[in-house]
Automatic annotation (TrEMBL), chain A:
The chain crosses the membrane at residues 21-53, 86-112, 124-144, 172-195, 229-254, 274-298. Residues 83-297 form the ABC transmembrane type-1 domain. The keyword Cell membrane applies. InterPro entries: ABC_transporter_permease, MetI-like, MetI-like_sf. CDD domains: TM_PBP2 (cd06261). Belongs to the binding-protein-dependent transport system permease family. It is a multi-pass membrane protein. Keywords: Cell membrane, Membrane, Transmembrane, Transmembrane helix, Transport. Its main location: membrane. This is Sugar ABC transporter permease.
UniProtKB/TrEMBL annotation, chain B:
Keywords: Cell membrane, Membrane, Transmembrane, Transmembrane helix, Transport. It comes from the Bacteria. Belongs to the binding-protein-dependent transport system permease family. Residues 70-270 form the ABC transmembrane type-1 domain. CDD domains: TM_PBP2. It is found in: Cell membrane. It is a multi-pass membrane protein. Gene3D superfamilies: MetI-like (1.10.3720.10). This is Carbohydrate ABC transporter permease. It comes from Micromonospora parastrephiae. Pfam families: BPD_transp_1. The keyword Plastid does not apply.
Length: 310, 284
């Protein structure tokens, strides 16, 4: 089970390997390819160039003739900005939020695997946090977590003083909770697809062996769910590390130091501090950082026919 | 049969379901309640409204330019959706039905591109548009079409990937049969493939639409007061409340729900297709 139900259903079309397509057919790739090239590859190269220039609001207009500073921006970003802190915040919050989302998602998949009355409604409701746009999620949690907001009123009835959630050290917790809240349905979806790919005979075999639900879950079901859940974990990590909108809307800018995540720092550095070269260097560094989970992801997803994927 | 397939004992199953529904339902339910409550009561953390009033849903339209924002979002995201789906079906067809050098690299790139941090491309895209604008003398930054072009290129890789996962499940015999009947590539595509791949096209279009509808990063720097999308209108509305006397929280909740409504409606209408698209690509 790699990515999606029914991936074993169809025998791969046996076409002549190595045979090149007619020129006309490959031309159909041109419109998409050209567009992608102009707005992804060209800007990527521009970003690399900019990260080597001393680019600020004065040199911005003639950006190609801005002074070349080599690795200067990178040295400054790592040594004299809060970049290392931002990397730590983004990375650790993403890991913790993903770890929170995994059990929730798997539990949700287990509860809706078998049909029951109202199952389709429950399934729809489970997906709501994921379906809501990040700017909506950020807006509603921003109001819920206000100092006098409903979250603290609720905590107060339990005798807990909530305090500040959008500022100060506890904002880090708020970031994790909201990210996990909006992220767990993705785990649920992939885990559910995995569950439904498990053959009934395995359930029967477990029943014949007299396995109780606990033993069956632990020794049969959960090991089989490992690949889809691992895929979900990687996607969720990539998602959360790259997440700009949620922290941006939830905490606003300038963001509190404790939740100054990498994308927001990069954004502020260019569009508020107008240090464009420095910001470009930060962006390139963030790409390098996500390269590791990204490569793992690209190896995990089924690209092609089943047997063609390593 | 049910007892064999059962994963959890009944009480645990019910307990877990209730727990998960509470996690989802408590915040979402509260938003509904807050949206019909007074601004003052929401700011004071009141859960159940003492007096229910739909006034917030009337007032938001004059408090912030939400109507114009929604119209801009609809125009931009709609254009992106239609274009993405139309272009993606061609690219995907070639990628699925033809073997050529670099094909797997293209497939990998389609997936990889979705994970490129938006912040990496934001500044160069901004600069390129500004440069094009000043050298050709056409307005770019602040226009809707510059936003459309930007989203297109982010949307295309994913739409193409969705179409690839869809088209490769189409039975090859149909295409072979058409070929035997003497149909050329174009005819096969227009007469056989596209009519059969409507569900895939719908999913590809929806994801492209969501990309445009949900974005704040690009829209926040590439729009002006008149071309702001709903996402930016709401974000600015929220950020502008800092330090205000009575923050219009009830109205913000109403506005948030209005912005979410089209997305949730789309999702409910096409839930089955969307879920299959999500699990196939695995990325929002």
């Amino acid at each position: 089970m790699r990515a999606g139900p029914g991936w074993l259903a169809r025998p791969p079309p046996r076409r002549r390997r190595g045979a090149t397509a007619g020129g006309a057919a490959v031309w159909l790739l041109a419109p998409g390819g050209l567009l992608t090239l102009t707005v992804i590859v060209v800007p990527f190269v521009v970003a690399l160039v900019m990260s080597l220039l001393d680019l600020d609001q004065y040199t911005f207009r003639q950006w190609l003739s801005a002074p070349f500073v080599g690795a200067g921006n990178y040295v400054e970003a790592v040594g004299r900005t809060s970049l290392p802190h931002a990397i730590w915040v983004s990375g650790s919050a993403a890991v913790i939020a993903t770890l929170l989302a995994l059990p929730l998602g798997v539990a949700a998949a287990l509860t809706t695997h078998l049909p029951f009355r109202g199952r389709s409604l429950v399934r729809s409701l489970y997906l709501i946090p994921y379906v809501l746009p990040a700017f909506v999620v950020g807006t509603i949690w921003r109001i819920i977590l206000q100092p006098d907001g409903v979250a603290n009123q609720g905590l107060a009835t339990l005798g807990i003083a909530g305090g500040l959630w959008l500022n100060g050290p506890k904002s880090y917790l708020a970031l994790i909770v909201v990210q996990a809240w909006s992220g767990w349905p993705l785990v649920y979806l992939l885990a559910l697809a995995g569950l439904q790919g498990i053959d009934d005979s395995l359930h029967e075999a477990a029943a014949l062996d007299g396995a109780q639900w606990r033993a069956k879950l632990r020794h049969v079901i959960l090991p089989l769910l490992r690949p889809p859940v691992a895929l979900a974990a990687i996607i969720s990590l990539l998602h959360m590390v790259n997440s700009f909108t949620l922290p941006f809307v939830l905490f606003g800018v300038p963001s509190p130091h404790d939740v100054e995540v990498l994308p927001v720092l990069t954004y502020v550095e260019s569009f508020q501090n107008l240090r464009f070269g420095l910001s470009a260097a930060m962006a390139v560094i963030s790409l390098v950082l996500i390269l590791v989970p990204l490569l793992v992801y690209l190896r995990t997803v089924r690209l092609d026919e089943p047997e063609a994927t390593a | 049969m049910n007892s064999v397939l059962r994963l959890l004992p009944r009480p645990l199953q019910i307990g877990l379901t209730v727990f998960l529904l509470t996690i989802v339902g408590a915040p979402v339910g509260y938003v509904f309640l807050a949206s019909v409550n007074t601004d003052l009561a929401v700011a004071a953390g009141e859960f159940w409204p003492e007096r229910v009033s739909v006034g917030n849903y009337v007032r938001i339209w004059s408090t912030v330019p939400l109507g114009r924002g929604l119209a801009n979002s609809l125009l931009v995201a709609g254009t992106v959706a239609v274009t993405c789906a139309a272009v993606a079906v061609f690219s995907a067809y070639v990628l699925v039905r033809h073997r050529f050098r670099g094909r797997r690299t293209v497939l990998r790139a389609l997936l990889g591109m979705q994970s490129i941090p938006g912040t990496l491309l934001l500044l160069p895209v901004f600069v390129l548009f500004a440069t094009i604008g000043s050298s050709l003398g056409v307005p770019t930054i602040g226009t809707r079409w510059s936003l459309v072009v930007t989203y297109l290129t982010f949307g295309l890789p994913f739409s193409t990937w969705i179409m690839v996962t869809y088209l490769r499940e189409l039975p090859g015999e149909l295409i072979e049969a058409a070929r035997v009947d003497g149909a050329g590539s174009w005819q096969i595509l227009l007469r056989v493939v596209i009519p059969l791949s409507w569900p895939g096209l719908v999913v590809a279009a929806i994801f492209a639409f969501l990309l445009g509808w949900n974005d704040v990063l690009f829209a926040s720097v590439m729009t002006d007061v008149d071309t702001r999308t709903a996402a930016v209108v709401l974000q600015v509305f929220g950020a502008a409340q800092e330090g205000g006397a009575i923050p219009p929280y009830g109205q913000m909740m109403a506005a948030a729900l209005v912005c979410a409504a089209p997305v949730v409606a789309l999702y409910l209408a096409f839930q089955r297709y969307i879920v299959s698209g999500l699990t196939a690509g695995g990325v929002k």
